[in-house]
Model the fold of this input.
Amino acid sequence: MNLGGFKNKEVLVDLTSGSVDYRPVNEEYAKKFIGGRGLGVKYVLDNGPEVEPLSEDNILCIMTGPVTGSRSSMSGRLCVVTKSPLTGTVTDSHMGGWTAARLKWAGIDNIIFKGKSDKPVYLYIENGQAELRDASDLWGKSTRATVQAFKDKYGADDLSVMTIGQAGENKVRFAGFMNEHDRAAGRGGTGAVAGFKLLKAIVIKATQKGNMPEAKNADEYKEANKKAVKAILDGGLTAPNKGGLSVYGTNVLTNLINEVGALPTMNSQATNWDEAEKHSGEWVNEHLLVANNTCHACPVACKIEVEVKEGKYKTRVESFEFESAWALGANSGLSNSEAIAYLIDLCNEYGMDTIELGHCLSVTMEAFEKGLVDEKLDWGDADSMIEMTRKIAHREGFGGVLAEGPARATAMWGAPELSMSVKGQSIPAYDPRGIQGIGLGYATSNRGACHLRGYTVASEIAGIPEPTDRLAAEGKGELLKVFQDLLSFSDSMNICKFSSFSENAEHYAEQYSGMTGIPMTAEDVMLAGERIYNLERYYNNLAGFDKAEDDFLPKRFTEEGATGNSAGSVSRMDIMLDEYYNVRGWKDGVVPTEKLVELGIIEKADSGETVEQ
Amino acid sequence: MNLGGFKNKEVLVDLTSGSVDYRPVNEEYAKKFIGGRGLGVKYVLDNGPEVEPLSEDNILCIMTGPVTGSRSSMSGRLCVVTKSPLTGTVTDSHMGGWTAARLKWAGIDNIIFKGKSDKPVYLYIENGQAELRDASDLWGKSTRATVQAFKDKYGADDLSVMTIGQAGENKVRFAGFMNEHDRAAGRGGTGAVAGFKLLKAIVIKATQKGNMPEAKNADEYKEANKKAVKAILDGGLTAPNKGGLSVYGTNVLTNLINEVGALPTMNSQATNWDEAEKHSGEWVNEHLLVANNTCHACPVACKIEVEVKEGKYKTRVESFEFESAWALGANSGLSNSEAIAYLIDLCNEYGMDTIELGHCLSVTMEAFEKGLVDEKLDWGDADSMIEMTRKIAHREGFGGVLAEGPARATAMWGAPELSMSVKGQSIPAYDPRGIQGIGLGYATSNRGACHLRGYTVASEIAGIPEPTDRLAAEGKGELLKVFQDLLSFSDSMNICKFSSFSENAEHYAEQYSGMTGIPMTAEDVMLAGERIYNLERYYNNLAGFDKAEDDFLPKRFTEEGATGNSAGSVSRMDIMLDEYYNVRGWKDGVVPTEKLVELGIIEKADSGETVEQ
Done:
């Protein structure tokens, strides 16, 4: 292995046999797919796109990238890649904190789990060595109780723990991993895959000192890093203490998105809400904020730690995020920010995706209101929401239905149209009728509805890198492709997506070149991103998503008009999807063989047959 | 239309628009696919194999055959064909009674429903005319209450009603249709398809007098019929009052199957049970029998009407069948035949498949015993079983999980190995370890696990038409093919499967020739059966069942040894499946194009492309 930034050591854990092996990182793959998300997807593809997500055949990849654990700004990200039990697509889910950096400091780049243990286990990592240990006494414990148990056992210093809660153990299809205090790899059900495998946690003991990854070209890397930090410190959204992410966290968006009429309200029956201000960043900072926290190597510190000091919603939680607050707030008709904080905390304790959980509640509320289910759940009824959240995590009673996720649950009731989801994953907090491009992003995202695959909102709302008309459909196919490709790269380098508000492809290219020693230009960055996005799409095509109908939006968005300052608008998928396929060079959502060959995803063998590389 | 036996009139109901139209029967199709099951499958294929079962796109076909309503013995069968919401395959489900005959007497061969109504409706048929009428006041009613309401409205004379209960309304994936008193088209979830479409019932008013179908060659038909009746009256299993079906009903099998060690007990954890005798035909006749009932034109009268005269299980029900008694009995650890009768009655009232319901209970019992779910349900706990049955029908609490069927429910718990099912449909009362051929039949059945696709038990247990060794694997591929093809024909002629205990292909050929006027030999019967079986397989291949892995048995049957007089035996799928594919001329479960062309299912166009005929 000749690439800087890599420790060149992967751990292979066979949970069935209990064996732990090591191998170098595949250098050819790493050059092509960068690391993190891209490399993880390649491993999952090699494992076969037809495996059952909740089966011994699925693999679970814990991935870092070439700059993880380095001094690169916002490089404290870890990526979990697997076949999703929620969507049936390949999925990758990211978490901040220090776990990623500590894994690298412990001398390990990636961990690949296969098989299924016959009793609960955790993987303990220290000094480049990994060992499976018994977790029987931790099974059934919440995420924080699990973290505390490991702190008691191994000492809190230099320790990172990523763990599943009861939701993962019970194979709730949108269970995730939690680490540090309240950082989540939330989406796509990676925690259910771990729960199925009886893998409770990964525990890492490692210090930065003497263990940071080495840059191949140290001077070039240092210079690149300095330039990137400057961009972040100068950036409108990322600059510390200037009113953006650093001050209000992601929740800076609530009032803004509500004002333009793009805040999905009560299961997207409206797109604005009078009450939304009560769970906005401004409100929370005034009433509940107690601390601003950060991740490894990040000057932005977007975390908003809140505390409800008394009353029945007494809690302290670090992740009062925009999406979480919206899913349990406007989306569910709840404006009490204290109750929202309590619900977020509960999701964190059980280890569940707040977005998907919010949709579980809102589809039930709408279905109950319309007489389609008997399960009484009223809009904004906090105490019933709390009780149902508990039932979902434990698959108790009706909770067992919702534990399948809103798309499957509504299908069970014969009312799939109530689920605001794509490929089984529910939409986040931007209504496709008020922001056209992001709707196309939901529809074509390779992991189901998601804002993080291609965050056109940056352009459509914040004017980054340049403003576009949020209500215009034309041009959004091209815009989306740029965002999707760029973020595919940053996710694979494993650098925080928020860096893209201030950094650009050139910043990434320079840091990557300096660290790995592989010359890279801004164009190379976009090409690698395109390769990774097509790799995922190829996986999904092979997994059965091979028609334009798979890239759909729920009818509500294309047929029922928006409200507020987007009044009457509907999503113009009809215009955007064709343009997007055209820009991508895809046919009805399928990557043609020539494209796969052109991007180096498969090889055209002499015989004319195609083979995977 | 030049075929005898047909009224040459089909009703096309578009539930979306509310329109009712009529068309002649497609004569070319009818010649090729006979009627009933075969013709219905062809209609469902033409509608597209990729439709969602619970969607407006699926169609629901109510089919009769060329001898329905005639004097042919056991010709009182009606067949419901659709894409199954339980299995995702094409499915056909049959019911006895008089509904089929009355439909024909009303001047109609078949009914095809498409679309989805916007309010509950029923279809009223009289004198060759059909009309959609409002069923809003019947929605929520049980099957018997619905039948009674129609009797009150239209008079009981000459009236047949086939209806769904609450289970169908709530889209329970194994809801069926009920008609007459307790006759069920139970398997595959046809009632859920109707429930989704807001179709409550089909009501037919018609008398036999002057309306029987006309035979093309009356003398030939009369002779053929006489010969068939003689075979039935002489047959060991079908002869009236000689100890077989006529005396004990299907439940004649309980003690026999238990004795050989092939009675799946407590979710197939054993294959015999000391207590099974208490729900056997012999026991029931001694303790609970009150009447023997029959269907149109049947001398066998296999129905066993039982009454529990007092106590908390007080009930009267006509269908104390072997499969039902076993599913709720040995399979669930319950030996109290009064409680079993009560549970059967409950399933009939709600309109649910007793076999699938029994598995819902038994998988929960095993999962609870093993600590995989918290829902307390103990083996043989009748009162909890009754309560859970009610919850399933109404999708209440944990019942909403089980309403998805045992295969989906156990997958939700991450324990799919607990579900004794194939393609999502649960096995009936013969353990594949004690009777090898029927296991192959479950695995390769085109509608998921089923004994009725190819009842090799006739040979392996009763020696009909000739005895084979039940524990031998060799030769079962060929044996099964014969049964599958023969029963595909009788199901398409819509004559009761039990006729095959005494009638053979020649009997069927003669009746068919006499009735329709199309010359037919015993060989033609087998070829038509093969064509229909391959037509279904072709549908399933197109619907995504295109690998040998789809034709599997649960691991319990291939890895855990049987008990009792089959002690230690495991299913030898490894031997049988290859032999079967070989006999069928299939490749890994897929019908090759040449085979489809050879059987006339598709045409080879000049261009080399294949087109459907």
Summary: Chain B touches chain A at residues 54, 171, 195-196, 373-375, 394-398, 400-401, 403-404, 411-414, 416, 544 (CB under 8 Å). The longest strand of chain B covers residues 199-205. Chain B has a mean pLDDT of 95.
